[in-house]
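Q: What would this chain look like folded?
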Amino acid sequence: MNSTVDTLLDRYGRTYSAELGIRLADNTPAPLFQWLCAGLLLSARISSDIAMNAAGALKDAGWTTARKMADSTWEERVRALNHAGYARYDESTARMLGDTVEHLIEAYDGDLRRLREAAGKDPGSERQRLKACKGIGDVGVDILFRELQAVWPELYPFADRKALEAAERLDLPGEADTLSRLVDRKDFPRLVAALVRAAQAKSLDAVAEAAAAG
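A: My prediction, written as structure tokens:
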């Protein structure tokens, strides 16, 4: 394996969904919904650590499906987000979560697998349907796709701009197709997450140095 890739996976190769204890591999409504909420939170202009804390807080509150979230009040969601440190966006995000679950239940019975089927398993159509959820834009969809590709094969191989820019800085391929050939298919979401994590930690130079020394 490429020594740079090996160093990335060793230091940063944990997906965000795994960190949150979201069992995406199950491809069932609850983990898919939890990942949607995480993607919404992570896409805001706020630190990823705070966003992850907030995503964990929603899960801890028991709002693990669209219908359970729909049973919560705006005030309860604001309080949970605020306590998790998501203070700058707590009120607007609590509102967006409420709008999103309402849309998901009305359009897809709260099940993102139905969104996927309605989109004909076409990534472009899936992107547009996900963007119909309040608070999910292209950045949010990119975050979702990075890890959904493990269970929605039509998305593979996917790497967003952040991951590809980090790859190029490490002299790795700057295209998802070529980059994906450096690892087993099952490890590609981990590699994409590792690139994003290393870039966010401003550790790309350290990764390069460690790989060169290794």
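The CA atoms of residues 2 and 182 lie 7 Å apart.
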